[in-house]
Design goal:
By secondary structure, this protein is α/β, with parallel strands linked by helices. The protein folds into two domains: about 140 residues, Up-down Bundle (Four Helix Bundle (Hemerythrin (Met), subunit A)), CATH 1.20.120.420; about 200 residues, Translation initiation factor eif-2b, domain 2 (Rossmann fold, 3-Layer(aba) Sandwich). The chain is built from eleven helices and 16 strands. β1 and β2 form a beta hairpin. It is globular, with a radius of gyration of 20 Å.
């Protein structure tokens, strides 16, 4: 099954963060953006784990696709006698790479299920792993297009949108998630304008979101995260992505998201989470069960080699926070707009 069958329908300004062509996995190194466009070529699952951990590829849907292809490159290098055990080992490594993004485990489990038939030959298993990875990518592209169509209908003309982190094609194959909605609104002639939070500590907003919006020729104003309250009254809507959505609607996303949701509630502005159905986790009942990844404090003490705090400063550096469902106006998904009550609608739709 060829990957990206919808690629010809995608706008030319979009990045392609992960690709697999001619037996070779290629990942755009997002740590080098916006200054350099550099590609990585992992040849084994351990390489993909390292790429995911250091955020060279990021965004829940993109991580899931990268992990699926990581299984494919691992299958290609393993000898026949170790194929099954080697894939199981690779699956464990990949799933542990980042615990919060549900798409990672979801994609790896799907790949392993594709080779669960005992009668398959080693070569058949290798083909099945690659085919499933390609299928996952193609489905995510299709989901992004559906998300964009549904979400763009919510935006008025000349919409002022506040967002955090990066949710474009760098984070999800195809159009992306929250930025995909904005891209589609732009294509539809609605002329949106975006306020992009810089997104400390690694500046995905200033490095990546501004880059994607500028490539699309969409007006964007970069703000410090702490300036969100100063622009909220100018905004019509907040759009954010998600890394895991619990069965009751509680949502894990980039740290700072809960702050924006609380601000939106105080300002009586709609706060929408934009995510594909693959990011909904029915096995996690509430946000209290979501494991929030804790990252190295050096990401806060320094940036790009520049010291920002004394070396021994104690740091609390969660990669994500959990926004309670009560602060969310709705979910923009590939299956439509989900509104409260979330415990009923989330479990019955995605």
């Amino acid at each position: 099954m060829p990957a990206r069958k919808d690629a010809e329908h995608l706008p030319g300004f979009l990045f392609r963060a992960v690709s697999f062509e001619r037996g070779r996995l290629r990942i755009l190194d997002q740590t080098q953006l916006p200054h350099r466009v550099t590609y990585l070529y992992p040849t084994k699952a351990a390489d993909v784990v390292a790429v995911i951990k250091r955020l060279a590829v990021r965004g829940a849907p993109a991580i899931g696709v990268a992990a699926a292809y990581g299984m494919a490159v691992e299958a290609g290098r393993l000898p026949d006698r170790n194929l099954r055990s080697g894939l199981e080992r690779a699956a464990r490594m990949l799933v542990a790479a980042r615990p919060t993004a549900v798409n990672l485990k979801w994609a790896v489990v799907r790949v392993m299920q594709s080779v669960s038939v005992r009668a398959m030959s080693p070569e058949e298993k290798r083909r099945a792993v690659l085919a499933e990875a390609q299928r996952i990518e193609t489905e995510e592209v299709e989901r992004s297009l559906a998300i964009a169509r549904h979400g763009a209908k919510l935006l008025p003309k000349n919409a002022e949108v506040l967002t955090i982190c990066n949710t474009g094609a760098l984070a999800a194959p195809g159009m992306g998630t929250a930025l995909g909605v904005i891209f589609q609104a732009h294509i539809d002639g609605k002329r949106p304008h975006v306020y992009a939070c810089e997104t400390r500590p690694l500046l995905q907003g200033s490095r990546l979101t501004t880059l994607e919006l500028q490539r699309a020729r969409i007006p964007v104003t970069l703000i410090a995260d702490s300036a969100a309250a100063s622009v909220i009254d100018r905004c019509d809507v907040m759009l954010v992505g998600a890394d895991r959505i619990a069965a009751n609607g509680d949502t894990a996303n980039k740290v700072g998201t809960r702050m924006l949701a609380t601000l939106a509630r105080a300002a009586r502005k709609p706060f929408y989470v934009v995510a594909p159905s693959s990011t909904f986790d029915s096995a996690t009942r509430t946000g209290q069960q979501i494991v929030v990844e804790q990252r190295d404090g050096e990401e806060v003490r320094a940036f790009a080699g520049c010291r920002a705090a004394p070396a021994r400063t104690v740091v609390f550096n969660p990669a994500f926070d959990v926004t309670p469902a009560r602060l969310i106006a709705g979910f923009i998904t590939d299956r439509g707009i989900l509104k409260p009550p979330f415990r009923k609608n989330v479990s019955s739709n995605p």
